[in-house]
Amino acid sequence: MGFTTLLVASLAAATSAMPILNPIQMMARAGPVAGQVITKCSAPGQLALAYDDGPYQYTQKLSDILKNGGAKGTFFVTGTLYGCIYNQKTALQSAYSAGHQIASHTWSHPQNFGSMSTADLNSQMTRLETALVNIIGVKPTYMRPPYLATGGNVLSTMKTLGYRVITDDIDAEDWNGKTPAQSQQKFQQAGASGNGHIPLMHETYQGTVETLTPWLINWAKTNNLKLVTVAECLGDAGGAYVNGTGNGASTC
Ligand SMILES: [Zn+2]
């Protein structure tokens, strides 16, 4: 290959590798694409502990256990599933301040999420956004669908709303009556290698908060896994939230 050919080839490679983006393209490139299902982290060496269905009576305790263990967790919260979200306002603010990620698990956790109209899906998301702006001052860009339902209008609506859709790659099955010991086996079977796990767990079970979580913190240390938020494990540390508009409400 002559010098000129080499130069042209290099320029072509550089151009294709680093296209010049306009600002809208730059924004679109920041973090994971909205409306596509994400099951695990984008790189090895990390574990994104993720908990659904709160806030509830264990939210503060879980936040503290994670913080004391040097871990960041992700809380996929609802508006009304285990009581009104404003009842746990202080715990949510504390978890947010501790650096845990607060994400959406819809307003009321509908059983028919995968077959709802776009208007109803929008309402489920925006009602929680407003409450979270009231409580922590920002709205989330990450969500996990109730029952991991990603059919019907879910993905197209989440794309429009700018939500990154998270499911899981390990199901702790705490929701299915598994004991913490049985959940631990699922992590051991999955192993610590490969891109980081995003497990499905629930902060509404005492065993998950008080037994499984300390065990996972220890398991991560033993396996040299960094305990990070879902956004962090997707290379999107600064992208977990956007600004939103609250309405001053303090009741559901
Ligand atoms: Zn749930």
UniProtKB/TrEMBL annotation:
CDD domains, per the entry: CE4_ClCDA_like
Any GO molecular function: metal ion binding
Cofactor: Co(2+)
SUPFAM superfamilies: Glycoside hydrolase/deacetylase
Pfam families: Polysacc_deac_1
Biological process (GO), any one: carbohydrate metabolic process
Keywords: Carbohydrate metabolism, Cobalt, Hydrolase, Metal-binding, Signal
Signal sequence bounds: 1-17
UniProt-listed InterPro entries: Glyco_hydro/deAcase_b/a-brl, NODB_dom
Residues covered by the NodB homology domain: 45-228
Keyword hit for GTP-binding: no
Protein name: Carbohydrate esterase family 4 protein
Organism encoding this protein: Lentithecium fluviatile CBS 122367
